[in-house]
Design brief:
Chain lengths: ~500, ~500
């Protein structure tokens, strides 16, 4: 904050301590998911709950409201745009916190925790009926939450849109439908082309490559990070059951990966993905910890965050030029070349096959999984779809979109954790990530030349530099769509992503 | 707590939350020393300071004082001895916290932090003059602290004794002198015997054994822990620059080790040592987390804690029977036998050579390093020794006690971190650990037979069982000396330790 008025200084101090507490919580989460022994879970849960209570108190107290109001009064006269934007975002979040009945907040926390437990059980036993009442309760609570928030939201924002705001600020379902309709129309024909071509092009990596020993996978991941600017003085990579990325302080960035012995690309691509998230975090406009606690220093949306991880995973690590450079290293790690050359190795990195499971989906089919979930969330939250009918509708739409029908709900509507934790409105961000990544990449290529050429010359740091100049420093000064418009000069659209997919399918089939 | 009076329940809830916060602090410390990237240090320091402030507030507030007073009033009528003891210990700690001027507490914290930084610099540059003013300030602040605490301490407790109470409850300098005098008298003749015998017996491991590759040292440590009851569901072992053990929750125990490539026993013996600390923590009378926050569930003194780590490091892992069993494993790890048999291997585990550095000292000479520091602390805190004269006095006494004279203060009075952090009164606990371990071991042998036989039969879990029956469950129901008297039927004395050392020297020289 450039201003040094007393009220702003006091507000900064408050936000700084809030961020300290929040990052303590993140540190405990990181420990929990990397090294904590299993029996520590109960105590850790109590520690996290204690911090959550403190955080909520700090973010909704009268004292905090007074600090925000005083800062607003102080800056009315002569404030920079950045300061006003910071205060607007703080005010918005404060109003959200204060609009919610504390009893509802507590009910939701309990229902989320219960929902998670019941879902684990339901998925394990492939028993939707066990999960149904928990999901009904969560939907009801989210509708109540939307109703409590409605008075401070934009007029006309719907019960599905309101809980989606924290993930994707200013998102609307009409706009999402506008963006996703071309995907439902454009992807199935591409998939058809792939499936009707030679089976080699559609082969999955597991059929074309042997297992790479754990230690060698670790080495490949470490080499990848080193070549992409990983700084061990500020970063740490650990192992966890599910890969994630988190920021523990203004100069403390962690990523995790897991090694799946018989999936030679799993850890490698996950490392590229999580490092993309981390690069965005490292490039946010924080300067030093002075800026760390302010909203402008935060990621603007889950969709933009995902665009950064997908860029490094899909546009770079799955590119043909990258495959050509890394194929020899993979062969060295393996002691042989089970792919039979760098072209089939590249095809191994880019399986194009419909499957039932979202988190295992490839670039081509991934967004159809999201379209399905977006439709069903709208049906559940706003259109009165009885929860009991969810499995059947899921299975039918899966058949229509991807040509596959789950035989078990565990592979169908029970596969994701999101709804079990009451997260409605989150899924679209994953698809937005693909669209945003593709549109930013077109502009990047317009300015720097083809990504394939830059990657072929091992100049990925040029790509980082471009993102570090044009994307990361925007923080929350703009929302996701505004960011795209500002950087690319055009409104977000599905066209760049569909063009990219179509080109990639062409090249994969050519070389098959 | 068996009682369920309302005041006790409320006090329990308060203590529970205090312990949650304290253990969050420990978790951050663990992360900091195992995986945190270096640049994260500043933010981490701010997180820890925030938690320290919260903890201090919880432990000294009016609200807490009221809770303790209400519980005291409630239990007056019908309380178990355990409840009364818990409340006594809480009252004592509360009075300590409330006797201290908050300004002094803040001054001390700043001086400790500055002292640490200045000491790092002074040690690196072998420049005592840089450190001198920091040490003078810390001594002055500790004297002030002792003066503020004096009214609530036992009448006549001295300025050195008062800050030592938290480490070694009820310790007095007269009693320590009584215990240590036999060491200053008894150890030098034993050392003389070793030094005048064949050089082989006094050889250090580095001259008799090659380096063991890191991965093999890790494997040996893991095998050791597995054979000593390490449960991965409750425990986690990591790497850190300096080995330590910590408890992060009622079912979450961590230990760390470091591998020093050219010191084949360093990681192995440190693992035995830290696991000894952890076993004590795991055996404290906590039952489940219900008992976790009460004083009775804590370790009673640093001396007793150290006795447990030294027992497993020195009495077990450095024993002849243990060496015989593990020699083949070390040879396997190394691919050869550089020791030439299990007897020389055992001698390698037991170097008996005077050295300048405390943390590298062997069983025979270690306590002389402590005697030196104890004398000098008394001189500094109570007898008016000018700080400027410390280096010369250190060097002279080092010559008298160990026959060696440091050439540089970095190897003399600048070697330890304790004084730089204002920790006066801590060192004696290390020597008490040796005495307590030896005296407990005599009683254990009286009941179970020779430790050498039990270890020879690979029955170390019997030793754990004995400690788990007789020592660990006592918690803070007794102080360190009372614990020894209760378990062994005799007051603590240096004789068992000197008997043990003498016997060990005999056997080492026999086999030389």
């Amino acid at each position: 904050m450039p201003q040094t008025g007393q009220a702003l200084v006091r507000l900064h101090e408050h936000l700084h301590q809030t961020r300290l507490l929040g990052s303590i919580s993140s540190a405990l989460y990181y420990d929990q998911n990397t090294v904590m022994p299993a029996a520590g879970a109960d105590w850790r849960g109590q520690q996290l709950a204690l911090l959550a209570t403190q955080l909520h108190e700090r973010q909704s107290s009268e004292r905090y409201a007074d600090l925000v109001a005083a800062a607003e009064a102080e800056v009315e006269q002569a404030a920079s745009g950045r300061t006003r934007r910071n205060l607007q975002l703080l005010r918005q979040e404060l109003e959200r916190q204060r609009s919610l009945d504390p009893q509802l907040v507590a009910c939701l926390a309990r229902a989320q925790s219960r929902g998670n437990a019941v879902w684990q059980d339901a998925r394990r036993n492939n028993n939707f009926a066990v999960f149904q009442p928990a999901l009904e309760e969560l939907l009801q609570l989210r509708r109540e939450q939307a109703a409590q928030l409605a008075p401070i939201e934009l007029a006309g924002r719907s019960p599905w849109e309101i809980p989606a705001q924290p993930f994707e600020p200013d998102a609307s379902k009409d706009r999402l439908q506008e963006l996703f309709t071309p995907l439902s129309a454009g992807i199935p024909p591409l998939l058809e082309r792939v499936l009707s071509s030679s089976p080699a092009a559609a082969a999955s990596p597991s059929t074309t490559a042997a297992a790479i020993p754990e230690a060698h996978q670790e080495t490949l991941c470490a080499e990848l990070l080193e070549s992409w600017g990983y700084d061990p003085a500020r970063c740490q990579r650990s192992r966890s059951a599910h890969p994630f990325s988190c920021t523990l302080g203004p100069a403390d960035y962690r990523i995790t990966t897991r090694v799946v012995p018989d999936q030679p690309f799993s850890a490698f691509l996950a490392t590229a993905h999580e490092w993309g998230h981390s690069l965005y975090e490292q490039g946010l406009p924080r300067g030093d910890d002075h800026y760390f606690p302010w909203p402008l220093g935060e990621a603007t949306s889950m969709g933009v965050h995902e665009s950064q991880s997908l860029f490094w995973e899909c546009r770079v690590a799955r590119s043909q030029a990258f495959a050509k450079r890394w194929h020899p290293r993979f062969c060295r790690a393996l002691g042989s070349d089970p792919w039979g050359g760098s072209h089939p190795f590249w095809r191994g990195l880019n399986p194009m096959r419909p499957g039932l499971i979202r988190v295992e989906a490839d670039e081509l089919t991934y967004c159809l999984h999201i379209v399905l979930r977006f439709e069903l969330e709208l049906a559940l939250v706003e259109q009165g779809l009885p929860v009991v009918e969810l499995p059947e509708l899921w299975n039918r739409r899966m058949g229509e979109l991807l040509g596959l029908r789950p035989q078990r709900d565990a592979e169908g509507c029970l596969q994701d954790i999101h709804w079990a934790e009451g997260l409605f409105g989150y899924f679209p961000s994953y698809a937005l990530g693909h669209l945003i990544s593709a549109q930013l990449a077109e502009t990047m290529e317009h300015e720097l030349g083809p990504i394939e050429s830059t990657v072929g010359a091992a100049q990925e740091l040029q790509l980082q530099h471009w993102l570090g100049e044009n994307v990361w420093p925007l923080g929350r000064s703009v929302n996701g769509e505004e960011l795209v418009a500002k950087v690319t000069g055009a409104p977000l659209s599905a066209s760049p992503f569909l063009r990219y997919l179509s080109g990639k399918v062409d090249r994969l089939l050519e070389s098959a």
